[in-house]
Protein backbone atom coordinates (compact mmCIF):
# COMPACT_ATOMS: atom_id res chain seq x y z
CA UNK A 1 0.00 0.00 0.00
CA UNK A 2 2.83 2.42 0.89
CA UNK A 3 4.57 1.68 -2.41
CA UNK A 4 1.36 2.36 -4.32
CA UNK A 5 0.96 5.68 -2.48
CA UNK A 6 4.51 6.69 -3.38
CA UNK A 7 3.95 5.80 -7.04
CA UNK A 8 0.79 7.92 -7.10
CA UNK A 9 2.56 11.07 -5.96
CA UNK A 10 3.37 13.45 -8.81
CA UNK A 11 6.91 14.37 -9.77
CA UNK A 12 6.89 18.13 -10.16
CA UNK A 13 9.29 19.91 -12.55
CA UNK A 14 11.64 21.02 -9.72
CA UNK A 15 12.53 17.35 -9.19
CA UNK A 16 12.14 16.12 -12.73
CA UNK A 17 14.88 14.05 -14.34
CA UNK A 18 15.39 16.63 -17.07
CA UNK A 19 15.56 20.34 -16.28
CA UNK A 20 16.83 23.50 -17.96
CA UNK A 21 19.33 25.55 -16.00
CA UNK A 22 19.39 28.03 -18.88
CA UNK A 23 16.04 29.36 -17.67
CA UNK A 24 17.79 30.77 -14.59
CA UNK A 25 19.73 33.23 -16.76
CA UNK A 26 16.45 35.00 -17.52
CA UNK A 27 15.75 35.75 -13.85
CA UNK A 28 16.82 38.95 -12.05
CA UNK A 29 20.14 38.98 -10.19
CA UNK A 30 19.50 38.48 -6.47
CA UNK A 31 22.96 37.14 -5.64
CA UNK A 32 24.77 38.36 -2.56
CA UNK A 33 23.57 38.77 1.00
CA UNK A 34 20.57 40.95 1.84
CA UNK A 35 20.58 42.88 5.11
CA UNK A 36 17.31 44.48 6.29
CA UNK A 37 17.19 48.26 6.33
CA UNK A 38 16.42 48.88 9.99
CA UNK A 39 13.56 51.33 10.41
CA UNK A 40 12.43 51.02 6.78
CA UNK A 41 9.14 49.28 7.54
CA UNK A 42 5.94 50.63 6.03
CA UNK A 43 2.36 49.65 5.37
CA UNK A 44 -0.97 50.16 7.11
CA UNK A 45 -2.29 49.36 10.56
CA UNK A 46 -3.70 45.90 11.34
CA UNK A 47 -7.46 45.84 11.83
CA UNK A 48 -7.54 43.20 14.55
CA UNK A 49 -10.68 41.48 15.80
CA UNK A 50 -11.83 39.33 18.72
CA UNK A 51 -9.38 37.85 21.19
CA UNK A 52 -6.43 38.85 19.01
CA UNK A 53 -7.36 42.53 19.28
CA UNK A 54 -7.92 42.23 23.03
CA UNK A 55 -4.55 40.61 23.67
CA UNK A 56 -2.67 43.07 21.47
CA UNK A 57 -4.19 46.07 23.28
CA UNK A 58 -3.45 44.55 26.67
CA UNK A 59 0.18 43.81 25.81
CA UNK A 60 0.79 47.23 24.25
CA UNK A 61 -0.61 48.85 27.39
CA UNK A 62 1.92 46.91 29.47
CA UNK A 63 4.74 48.11 27.22
CA UNK A 64 3.52 51.70 27.49
CA UNK A 65 3.50 51.43 31.28
CA UNK A 66 6.89 49.73 31.43
CA UNK A 67 9.24 50.05 28.42
CA UNK A 68 11.32 47.18 29.82
CA UNK A 69 8.40 44.77 29.55
CA UNK A 70 8.87 42.09 26.90
CA UNK A 71 5.74 40.66 25.29
CA UNK A 72 5.74 36.86 25.80
CA UNK A 73 5.59 34.62 22.77
CA UNK A 74 5.03 30.87 22.47
CA UNK A 75 8.60 30.07 21.55
CA UNK A 76 11.97 29.54 23.14
CA UNK A 77 15.40 30.69 22.03
CA UNK A 78 15.98 27.66 19.84
CA UNK A 79 12.55 27.44 18.21
CA UNK A 80 12.50 28.95 14.69
CA UNK A 81 10.48 32.10 14.18
CA UNK A 82 8.79 30.62 11.12
CA UNK A 83 6.79 32.67 8.65
CA UNK A 84 6.51 35.58 8.23
CA UNK A 85 9.06 36.44 10.96
CA UNK A 86 11.85 34.60 9.16
CA UNK A 87 11.84 37.16 6.35
CA UNK A 88 12.06 40.25 8.55
CA UNK A 89 14.50 39.45 11.35
CA UNK A 90 17.51 41.78 11.78
CA UNK A 91 19.80 39.18 10.20
CA UNK A 92 20.88 38.45 6.65
CA UNK A 93 18.91 36.67 3.93
CA UNK A 94 20.25 34.74 0.94
CA UNK A 95 18.26 33.60 -2.11
CA UNK A 96 19.43 30.54 -4.06
CA UNK A 97 17.78 29.93 -7.44
CA UNK A 98 17.35 26.42 -8.83
CA UNK A 99 15.12 25.13 -11.62
CA UNK A 100 11.56 25.25 -10.29
CA UNK A 101 12.56 26.28 -6.77
CA UNK A 102 14.01 29.14 -4.72
CA UNK A 103 15.71 28.39 -1.40
CA UNK A 104 15.83 31.18 1.18
CA UNK A 105 18.51 31.03 3.88
CA UNK A 106 18.03 33.10 7.04
CA UNK A 107 21.19 33.59 9.05
CA UNK A 108 19.30 33.62 12.37
CA UNK A 109 18.99 30.05 13.63
CA UNK A 110 20.09 28.90 10.15
CA UNK A 111 16.46 28.76 9.01
CA UNK A 112 15.71 27.47 5.51
CA UNK A 113 12.61 28.01 3.42
CA UNK A 114 11.57 26.61 0.02
CA UNK A 115 9.48 28.46 -2.57
CA UNK A 116 8.34 26.24 -5.44
CA UNK A 117 8.12 27.97 -8.82
CA UNK A 118 7.42 24.93 -11.00
CA UNK A 119 3.67 25.45 -11.36
CA UNK A 120 2.52 23.11 -8.59
CA UNK A 121 -0.66 24.12 -6.73
CA UNK A 122 -0.95 25.05 -3.09
CA UNK A 123 -2.08 22.09 -0.98
CA UNK A 124 -5.78 21.87 -0.18
CA UNK A 125 -6.86 22.61 3.38
CA UNK A 126 -7.41 18.94 4.22
CA UNK A 127 -3.91 18.07 2.99
CA UNK A 128 -2.03 20.74 4.94
CA UNK A 129 0.33 19.65 7.70
CA UNK A 130 0.92 22.93 9.61
CA UNK A 131 4.58 23.78 10.21
CA UNK A 132 6.78 26.75 11.04
CA UNK A 133 7.27 27.98 7.48
CA UNK A 134 4.11 26.76 5.80
CA UNK A 135 3.99 25.74 2.16
CA UNK A 136 4.99 28.33 -0.44
CA UNK A 137 4.44 28.44 -4.19
CA UNK A 138 5.50 31.31 -6.39
CA UNK A 139 5.56 32.60 -9.92
CA UNK A 140 7.25 35.45 -11.75
CA UNK A 141 5.35 38.50 -12.97
CA UNK A 142 8.08 40.14 -15.00
CA UNK A 143 10.93 40.69 -12.52
CA UNK A 144 8.66 40.39 -9.47
CA UNK A 145 8.43 37.13 -7.54
CA UNK A 146 4.86 36.61 -6.29
CA UNK A 147 4.55 34.04 -3.49
CA UNK A 148 1.53 32.57 -1.69
CA UNK A 149 2.02 30.70 1.59
CA UNK A 150 -0.46 28.63 3.59
CA UNK A 151 -0.16 26.07 6.38
CA UNK A 152 1.80 28.00 9.00
CA UNK A 153 1.39 26.91 12.62
CA UNK A 154 -1.18 28.88 14.61
CA UNK A 155 0.20 31.12 17.35
CA UNK A 156 3.32 32.42 15.60
CA UNK A 157 4.19 36.11 15.48
CA UNK A 158 2.29 37.94 12.74
CA UNK A 159 3.99 41.15 11.69
CA UNK A 160 4.92 42.40 15.15
CA UNK A 161 5.05 41.32 18.78
CA UNK A 162 1.66 40.88 20.37
CA UNK A 163 -0.07 39.70 17.19
CA UNK A 164 -0.31 36.01 16.33
CA UNK A 165 -1.93 34.13 13.48
CA UNK A 166 -4.64 31.48 13.32
CA UNK A 167 -4.48 28.36 11.14
CA UNK A 168 -6.39 30.32 8.46
CA UNK A 169 -3.51 32.66 7.67
CA UNK A 170 -2.60 33.21 4.04
CA UNK A 171 0.52 35.21 3.20
CA UNK A 172 1.11 36.92 -0.13
CA UNK A 173 4.57 38.32 -0.92
CA UNK A 174 5.79 40.45 -3.79
CA UNK A 175 9.61 40.54 -3.89
CA UNK A 176 11.47 42.71 -6.40
CA UNK A 177 14.54 44.88 -6.97
CA UNK A 178 14.17 48.64 -6.73
CA UNK A 179 13.86 50.12 -10.22
CA UNK A 180 16.43 52.85 -9.44
CA UNK A 181 18.77 50.94 -7.14
CA UNK A 182 19.54 47.31 -7.96
CA UNK A 183 21.18 46.88 -4.57
CA UNK A 184 17.86 47.42 -2.80
CA UNK A 185 15.25 44.66 -2.53
CA UNK A 186 11.59 45.24 -1.71
CA UNK A 187 9.37 42.77 0.15
CA UNK A 188 5.66 43.63 0.21
CA UNK A 189 3.44 41.50 2.42
CA UNK A 190 -0.34 41.05 2.42
CA UNK A 191 -1.67 39.05 5.37
CA UNK A 192 -5.17 37.61 5.18
CA UNK A 193 -6.56 35.86 8.25
CA UNK A 194 -10.35 35.95 8.82
CA UNK A 195 -10.01 34.97 12.49
CA UNK A 196 -7.45 37.69 13.28
CA UNK A 197 -8.02 40.53 10.79
CA UNK A 198 -11.18 42.23 9.55
CA UNK A 199 -9.38 43.12 6.31
CA UNK A 200 -6.05 42.28 4.64
CA UNK A 201 -3.01 43.83 6.32
CA UNK A 202 -0.19 45.27 4.17
CA UNK A 203 3.44 45.56 5.32
CA UNK A 204 6.52 46.65 3.37
CA UNK A 205 10.21 46.02 4.03
CA UNK A 206 13.45 46.86 2.22
CA UNK A 207 16.88 45.21 2.18
CA UNK A 208 20.33 46.31 1.02
CA UNK A 209 22.74 44.04 -0.82
CA UNK A 210 26.30 43.24 0.13
CA UNK A 211 28.29 41.14 -2.33
CA UNK A 212 31.22 40.64 0.08
CA UNK A 213 29.38 39.02 3.01
CA UNK A 214 28.56 35.37 3.60
CA UNK A 215 25.92 33.76 5.80
CA UNK A 216 27.41 33.03 9.24
CA UNK A 217 26.83 29.95 11.36
CA UNK A 218 24.21 30.56 14.04
CA UNK A 219 23.58 27.82 16.60
CA UNK A 220 21.27 29.03 19.35
CA UNK A 221 21.84 25.93 21.47
CA UNK A 222 25.54 26.66 21.82
CA UNK A 223 26.20 27.88 25.37
CA UNK A 224 22.50 28.69 25.81
CA UNK A 225 21.83 29.59 29.46
CA UNK A 226 18.25 30.81 29.20
CA UNK A 227 15.92 28.55 31.21
CA UNK A 228 12.62 27.49 29.68
CA UNK A 229 9.51 27.21 31.84
CA UNK A 230 6.66 24.68 31.62
CA UNK A 231 4.90 26.84 29.01
CA UNK A 232 7.93 26.92 26.71
CA UNK A 233 8.70 30.56 27.55
CA UNK A 234 12.34 31.59 27.96
CA UNK A 235 13.57 33.77 30.80
CA UNK A 236 16.75 35.78 31.15
CA UNK A 237 19.38 34.07 33.27
CA UNK A 238 21.00 36.24 35.90
Explained architecture:
The protein has one domain (26-210): Calycin beta-barrel core domain (Lipocalin). It is built from 2 helices and 11 strands; from the N terminus they run αβαββββββββββ. It has helices spanning 2-8, 50-65; strands at residues 33-43, 93-98, 101-106, 111-116, 135-141, 144-150, 157-158, 160-164, 170-177, 184-192, 201-210. A hairpin with a 1-residue loop joins strand 7 and strand 8. The longest helix has 16 residues, at 50-65. The protein is globular and about 55 Å long. The mean pLDDT is 89.
Keywords:
single chain; 238 residues; mainly beta; Lipocalin; nine-stranded mixed beta sheet; two-stranded antiparallel sheet; 2 helices; globular
The biggest sheet amounts to: 9 strands, mixed
Distance between the termini: 55 Å
How many alpha or pi helices? Answer: 2
Helical amount? under 10%
Mean pLDDT equals 89
> Would you tell me the structural class of the helices and strands?
mainly beta
The CATH architecture name reads Beta Barrel
* Alpha-carbon Rg, integer: 19 Å
Taking pLDDT < 50 over at least 5 consecutive residues as the criterion, the unreliable ranges are: none
- What is the fold-level CATH name, i.e. the topology? Lipocalin
Amino acid sequence: MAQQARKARPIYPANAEKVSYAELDKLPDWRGIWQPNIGRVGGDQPMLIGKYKKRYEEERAKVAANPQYEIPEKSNNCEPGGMPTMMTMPYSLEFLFAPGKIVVNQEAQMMVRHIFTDGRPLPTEDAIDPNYFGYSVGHWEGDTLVVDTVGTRAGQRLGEQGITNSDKLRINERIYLDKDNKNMLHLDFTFTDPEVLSQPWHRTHTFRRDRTWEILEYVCDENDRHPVDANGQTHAAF
